[in-house]
Design brief:
This protein has four helices and two strands; from the N terminus they run H-E-H-H-E-H. A two-stranded parallel ribbon has the order 1-2. Helix 1 packs across helix 3 and helix 2 crosses helix 3. The longest helix is centred in the C-terminal third of the chain and has 11 residues. The radius of gyration is 12 Å and the shape is globular.
């Protein structure tokens, strides 16, 4: 799959692809894992621009306070919660 986006977005999307099914990461954890610890908001924005929701599992990224945050995929936050529930994630 050829990803089209900024260098930063592609870096984030590749990192999201490493999150195993049934696990979640926070936007802050993703920012740290790509070496940009102060870029949590930019990570959230990259998630919102994800061209392949579900395939690139941005639904597995949540806020630091444990809430689900947003989801730009069709179905919005409701679908994000359903996907996480199907994967066995308790929120």
């Amino acid at each position: 799959m050829k990803l089209k986006g900024t260098e930063f977005q592609i870096e984030v999307w590749k990192e999201l692809s490493k999150i195993p099914k049934g696990e979640v990461r926070t936007y802050k954890q993703i920012a740290k894992s790509i070496g940009k610890p102060k870029s949590s908001r930019a990570v959230a924005n990259a998630c919102a621009k994800n061209p392949y929701p579900i395939v690139i599992p941005c639904h597995r990224v949540i806020r630091s306070d444990g809430t689900v945050g947003g989801y730009s995929g069709q179905g919005g936050v409701k679908l994000k919660k359903e996907l996480l529930k199907k994967e066995g994630v308790r929120l």
